[in-house]
Each structure stands twice: as C-alpha cells, then as structure tokens.
Write a structure and sequence with these properties.
Blueprint (H helix, E strand, L loop, with lengths): L1 E10 H8 L8 E4 L2 E5 L2 H7 L17 H8 L5 E9 L2 E10 L2 E9 L11 H8 L10 H4 L14
Antiparallel strand pairs: 1-3, 1-4, 2-3, 4-5, 5-6
C-alpha cells in the first residue's frame, strides 16, 4: 500500500486570502484550526514558473514557490510537507515559514532512517503550527493526516 502527501498546511485564515484567486487551489479543513492545500497537479501547474522542481530539497515544491510561502507566512506560520511511502518504507520532508522567513529549516528523513527523538519532520512542522497531540499519539495522527492515502484524495 502506498501513501503520498505533498501539501501546504497553515491556519485557515492565513491561507484563505492568498489562495482565493489561485487557480487549482482547494483548501481542506483538517482540525485544530488548520487547513491543508494539496499540491495537486492543477495547483502545481498554476504556481510553477518553469524552472523545475526540487526547491529546498523537496521533490514536488516548484522552484520559486517558496517565495510565495514566505509571503503567506506574514499572516502566521505556513508549512510545506511531503511524505512518500510504499509498503511502510519511505521518506518525509517538512519546512515552516513564519514572518516571511524560514522558521524551521527543511527537515528530511530518508528511507530507512529512524525519526529523530523530536519526531517526524511533519510532526515537528505541525508542532510549530500549534498542533497539540494527546498522550500516545503524534501531531501527524492528531490532525488525522492518515485519513487519505494520496494528495489528490483530499479534494475528491
């Protein structure tokens, strides 16, 4: 079974205005006041500037889009997250912008590496966004990022 997530996550209010007129943008409420903006093919085509992907070491973050994320973070912290798993093996990447600058440098855990004691890259990013996990769960589980297995499914 596979799992993939490529998305922007932030407070719903921080994302609503900048994405209102952005073709391909679909905000999905996810709990604890946050919304998820899946990096669907349609959104990717809208925000890509033709210079490729791989900004800041991410696989699907269009080059130049990190500038938009920095601008959006004027209204509060904004995370970009990626996870790709197949058969329980995979990798995660995450970064957080706040106040126009990177507040949590891009973190990544590659295939076969254990998560650090601070938690997975995505859980660390969610923590920076204010997510609170209950005892026995992490931030990833607290906002139920496992409810869909693919980025496109969040808007289906």
């Amino acid at each position: 079974m596979s799992y993939d997530l490529h998305a922007v996550i932030a407070d719903e209010e921080a994302l609503r205005a900048p994405t209102r007129d952005l073709p391909g943008a679909r905000l999905v409420p996810m709990g604890q006041g946050l919304s998820l903006l899946p990096m669907t093919d349609a959104l990717f085509e809208t925000v890509a500037d033709g210079s490729g992907t791989g900004a800041l070491g991410f696989r699907r973050l269009p080059r130049g889009f990190e500038k938009a994320l920095a601008l959006w973070s004027a209204g509060g912290p904004v995370a970009y997250v990626e996870a790709e798993y197949f058969g329980g093996v995979g990798d995660q990447r995450a970064a957080v912008w706040d106040g126009g600058t990177i507040a949590l440098a891009p973190l990544h855990v590659d295939e076969g590496e254990p998560f650090p004691s601070a938690g997975s890259p995505i859980s660390q990013a969610l923590r920076r966004l204010g997510v609170v996990a209950s005892v026995g769960e992490d931030e990833f589980s607290a906002v139920r990022l496992d409810r869909h297995r693919h980025s496109e499914a969040w808007i289906a």
